[in-house]
Amino acid sequence: MGSLRPRATAARAACLPACLRSGVAETPGHSRPRCLPACLRSGVAETPGHSRTRCLPACLRSGVAETPGHSRTRCLPAYGGVAETPGHSPACPPCLPACPPCLPALTALPALTALPALPCPALPWPAASNYSVVVLSNKARWGRGDPRPQPPAHTNGKIEWSSETYHPRRGLRLGAVEAETATETTPRRGPTEYAAARVADIPSAFRLLVTPRVIDLALAATNLEGRRRLGRDWKAMDATELLGYLGLLILAGVYRSRNEAAESLWHEGSGRAVFRAAMPMKRFHECSRMLRFDDRETRAARLASDKLAAIRDVWDEWARRLPLLYDPGPDVTVDEQLVPFRGRCAFRQYMPSKPARYGLKVWAACDAESSYAWKMQIYTGKSSSASEKEKNQGARVVMDLTEGLSGPRNVTCDNFFTSYELARRLLDERGLTVVGTVRKNKPELPRALLDAKGRAVFSSKFAFTPAAALVSYVPKRNGNVLLLSTLHTGDARVSAAGHAKPDIILHYNATKGGVDNLDKLVGTYSCRRKTGRWPLAVFHNVLDVSAYNAFVLWRELRPEWMRGKLNKRRAFLERLGEELVTPLVERRRRLPRTDASAALVKKAAAARSSAEVEEEAEEGEEEEEEEGHGHGRAEPDAADDPTGPGKRKRCQRCPRSKDRKTSIVCCGCARYICGSCVRAYCPECVDP
Predict the structure, then answer these.
(1) Residues 124 and 179 placed together within one structural domain of the fold
(2) Which domain holds residue 476?
(3) What pLDDT is stored for residue 164 in this prediction?
(4) CA dist., res. 674 & res. 663, Å (int)
(5) How far is CA 307 from CA 345, 382, 397, 535, in A?
(6) How would you label 541-555 residue by residue, b for 16+ Cβ within 10 Å and e otherwise?
(7) Residues 60 and 124 occupy one common structural domain
(8) Residue 45, domain member (yes or no)
(9) Predicted structure pTM score
């Protein structure tokens, strides 16, 4: 709105305070849009660092300059000593008292400027941090006959909000030059160099997460439990068998058989051939019952200080690997995951908003685009040593999950985590911005943005500090949602679509689903089985997340793999399960009863034999070349004395895993055999 033209001093002195105090335009020819905001809207910008709620009302609360020791020419001109409205002087009687008396009523007027706070040089008021600025929106309207709005309450005395941005050129949408600069500083998203150098095939990507250390910990605890409970009947498990067992779990998830009984999976007619080919069902049940991750007899002492003692070593080793293999992109999502579990557990949670409702809560930080699980932390409930309830738990969780993460990155989280103090700490300590919903009971929120009654649908109110932006959006009648952002500190724009959503909400909607998407994808092909032991439920979730993270690594390192296909993840998991099971199938001594399973065992054995023959042939050629070069002449043919000593090779009757080398050759078939495979016969029995 343009500025008012100067009128006679007597007319201004007579009419302006009258229409301000009564709330209606009582003087003919004067209206509220022309009188009230005239000296505030068009060039009021007093002195930067001054607040209208702190200095202006100080000496003008009664509507006139009646405060002892203060005058209009002493207090108000201190803001700048310039004419606020063109044609008006700082000592203009109608202009000076116009703002303070009507300030409570102006909370609904458009485009009013609230200024940052500095103490007024003419008044002995306390420090700037003891007061707050009233937020004035540019959306609401106040017409004739409406009830006079009440003055918004101050905040908790530490945060001051303004209706105008402090950084008008900063925001999510950047210009061409700014976008080019931002591209240079945008963090690179994808596998680290460490992961790229070690991912050679699909199983190697999985083993980067489920490391040999994890396998060794599980093997030691499982064999110890098996010997204690079954004694001599327990057959010691090795790494090949444990990896094969994990491969069967992954294949069960691929076939959507997590709730299917094991008897059905091993059924001769309707079951899958790979399960019977890998191991008997009885052995599978034994492995499931004996699978442990710590020493059960020493667990009680560790439980006194650690509720996660039953799987602590495995969990820490696995969680330590997650951030080493992947660099998140510019947006990271922090949220909670619920691992379904209904058994006995001291820290089992009830979350009615989750599909499973009962389970173990896991805090997770994921890349917003790929949903790679970058960090995870199990919530074990209230600490036994803590006498009081933990305060600011959401902020503590976000600080833990973003440790080691540096800017320029943004963290998106929901209202359980978001607070102004968290946003300030992340920005000051780590250079990370925050976008998240805010609960309405936060003390730092201005009251002007909390009430949604009477506001138009799809309307927005904004408030700003030098480091943050707050928006109150009304998606439906008498209901609003609040979002805090330190990324959009200068962005008060809204979408041109019918819903007119602010850019802050659009960015939040685009990046809030990182953990939820991980939960959905993991649940689609989950390997978890029914169990009453919570450590096993946690371990099943470890396998699910590891398989998904390995898929993300493989997909981004091999973008040409199955390009254009929609079933990449299912094919990856099926390939991974088969690769883990194959060594277990190859060493199977007895053939299964079903033809399909027996055919798998024979096929694996034939593939292994052909690979061994090719390997031995290559080794023989290399050795012959070395001997020829070393002696300068060819050695005599060993076929003249097949039973005599010759070149040492692997026994062709023993399993490849035993790797027994021998120089004895069978006189009948000319195959290499070790001492345990030799049978002694006299010449009469051999040649009767």
Answers:
(1) no
(2) 165-189+415-505
(3) 82
(4) 8
(5) 10, 10, 18, 11
(6) bbbbbbbbbbbbbbb
(7) yes
(8) yes
(9) 0.68
